[in-house]
Amino acid sequence: MNLSHRQLGSFISSEIKQTVSPCQNASTMTSIKLTRETILSGALHNSVRGLLGPDVRLMTDEERTGHITRMLAAQPSPGPVWVFGFGSLIWNPAFHFSERRTARIHGFHRQFCLWARAGRGSPEKPGLMLSLERGGSCTGVAYQIEPGQEHSELDVLWRREMLTMAYRPVWTLARTSQGDVWAITFSANRSHERYAPGLDNESVARYLANGAGPMGRCCDYLFDTVDHLRQLGIRDRRLEGLEKRVRSLITV
To answer: Averaged over 30-59, what is the pLDDT?
Structure first.
């Protein structure tokens, strides 16, 4: 059965609405933590391949090196390299940085629009991950990479974010209280099979409540993101609404 992204989302939504199996028992599946060490050792790579099978398309070492080189060459203006985080990079960056600022970007908004079938999801219990979709604005965290360490630290970042190539790295202008900086961030790759556009809030909440994988519960990804945004004084009303709904689903 061949389905478009939207048809696939509708199909799976109708299936999951029949029964929500809350992710309270996902601790038995947690076998890997996302750290600098698991990224560089290949443990993350192996975990994803183990779940998705030997034929899954993952970024090669050569592709990653070339990608980073081209990204740095495309930097809009000379100066330090910054990275803008909007999800788990806010509370678990894994790469080394020399400065951290709250920042706001325009032209993108935070959205749960990527399937998670590894990490905090699995083929049996798929979840959803955040990406950036076009339009609006997004407040998160900008990290400055120490000059001279750009290649090594972006290598860590690329191994993490670009493993399945479901993101599209872009340069964006991040506005901070200390001035504007150009930063790398990760928008959704709309041509990737993980792209999940057009899901309604109830479907998103149910995937987040149900999803679980080797890195733990998908709902905790949501809860941690909302909690750390609050700690920074950032309010994302849509995420807070999803948090409330997901908590109600997993306590049923």
So the answer is: 93
